[in-house]
Amino acid sequence: MTIKASIFISLLLLFHPFFISNAQQVWSPDNGDGTFTNPLMWGDWPDPDIIRVGDEFYMVSTSMHYVPGSPIAKSKDLVNWEMAGYAVDRYDEEPGYDMKDGKTLYLNGSWANSIRYHNGKFYVAFCTPYGWGTEKGHFSVCEAEKVEGPWKRTVFPEHLYDPGLFFDDNGKVYVVHGQHDLFVTELNADARSVKGKPVKIWDKGVDDAHNSGKHAGMEGSHVYKINGIYYILCPAGGTEGWQVCLRSKNIYGPYEHKVVIQDDSSYPTNGLHQGGMVQLKNGDWWFIIMQDRGAIGRVPHLLPVKWIDGWPMLGINGHDVSIYQKPNVGKTYPIKSPATTDEFNSTKLGLQWQWNHNPDNSRWSLTERKGYMRLKASYAKELTTARNTLTQRVQGPLSTGTVEMDASGLKNGNIAGFGVFQDPYAYVAVRQGDGIRKLIFCYKGKQTTIIENLKQDKVWFRARVTDKDFTARLYYSLDGKDFSPVGEVLHMNLGYPWTANRFALLNYSETEEGVGGMADFNWFRFYNK
Asked: How many CB atoms lie within 10 A of CB 9?
């Protein structure tokens, strides 16, 4: 073989999708040959909504109690995505977001986000429900001139459930909202207050495409006006559901409806449902729609839209697309994925990270020890009430997270380590008491000692997650090379509904004496294997 031929083959291998994907160490939908494979991200990006501004696409997602909230990703081609920012810095309306006095607000925060661009501004709207720790829900609109922020948030006293924000071409601003019964509420022109009372536009269930007699309620509305016709796209039927379109010549109706996709073939029995629609510069339409994949999360799929008799029909002949030609945006763009691995060399927190509830910003630092994430312990009885637990999505089909931690700054009462967070949760950690450090494994709050007297400062922890039976296994190492499994297998579940499992860095104190004890994380590294 000649040197030129060898170099040519090496370049081919280098840019082959397999090697690109492994270089990223994360799932990539881009096959490198002009096609893509669903899902777009194999992690928790629920309730997606999508817009195009110029040559850039923006997708917003739900994040509930994780902070910052309302994550926004950006793309040039609808296939390759990276993080752009968050619409919510923190939640200040309830003390439970700060975990004061042990109170928490799991499953609050942002639900069913909607994103729009109007007169040079980005808008993100979402609801916060009642009944999950609060007596009254509300509605929020965030606005910014740049998607990276800063964002200004207006919290409305009204509770507009699963809101679809819409700026009409006549200057009026509406929100379509509700569950089963759907309403239109007009906002004032600045989208910062309600102008009129809710008007009911729909009051019945809808059957599926097979006329099964299910008559499920709709929710998660997103609104469009195309050629003078109002279209409202809604999911129905929940996890095993389908997508419905309403249309009318008047925002207030009357509306007719049609099922525009019902398919669970890519992940039986969970149907494609809830998402948003966007038009390319060339006139083509595409839809990003989610599918529930259990403990890994609700993942976004990209589907072509074909207009048939004035209805936006999703997919191909009513079905999901597994592998399909990428959208024609006129150019080919590099393969990208949202960041995962973090060497903690920046002074700003990476966009891949979210805190469990509001962080205490006085008790974490990326600057006190250069190249490390320092977590300082606050008092908590156990992990679910501990502040400053730092998380990012686990991903399918396989994902492994590994951290290096320095325990030299711990105080008596501290528990610092790494694990997988949800309900149930599991972690492996260093626990210090009476000046002695122990290596422990914790599963559902029950601690088991692995090493009675840990003599060294530096330890390595690993969590390996698979979508097969939704299991996670934890490991530790004393040299960063050889890892030993600890404890029992975590059977991941969704005790906190609608929020997937997450990798989690943690440090909290079971005693007041240990408050302020420090755990230094040198890096977090993600592998898709």
From this structure: 11
Mean pLDDT, residues 261-276 taken together: 96
pLDDT in tens, 101-129: 889 999 999 999 999 999 999 999 999 99
CB atoms near residue 297 (< 10 Å): 28
Q: How far is CA 347 from CA 171, 319, 373, 474, 520, in A?
A: 43, 46, 10, 29, 15
- Return all residues near 226 (Cβ < 8 A) that are at least 6 apart: none
Supply the pLDDT for residue 13.
Answer: 34
SS3 (DSSP) at 276? strand
Active site residue 219: yes
Q: Which residue reads 């528990």 in tokens?
A: 415
Give the containing element (helix H, strand E) for 39.
Answer: none
Do 360 and 388 contact (CB within 8 A), yes or no?
A: yes
Single pTM value for the model: 0.94
pLDDT tens profile 169-208: 999 999 999 999 999 999 999 999 999 899 999 999 999 9
150 Cβ contact partners less than 8 Å away, ≥ 6 residues apart: 144
Mapped onto helix, strand or coil, the DSSP state of residue 109 is coil
pLDDT of residue 492: 97
Which among 98, 219, 292, 404 is annotated as catalytic? 219
The strands making up 49-53's β-sheet, listed across from edge to edge, are 49-53, 56-60, 69-75, 81-88
Q: Which of 30, 47, 264, 320 is catalytic?
A: 47
Q: Is-catalytic flag, 47?
A: yes
Structure tokens at 120: 């040079």
Beta carbons of 194 and 184 less than 8 angstroms apart:
no
Cβ contacts of 468-477, under 8 Å, gap ≥ 24: 468/397, 470/294, 470/295, 470/296, 470/501, 472/394, 472/420, 472/426, 472/501, 474/419, 474/420, 474/426, 474/427, 474/428, 474/441, 475/428, 476/428, 476/439, 476/450
Whether residue 90 contacts residue 68, with contact meaning beta carbons closer than 8 Å, is answered with yes
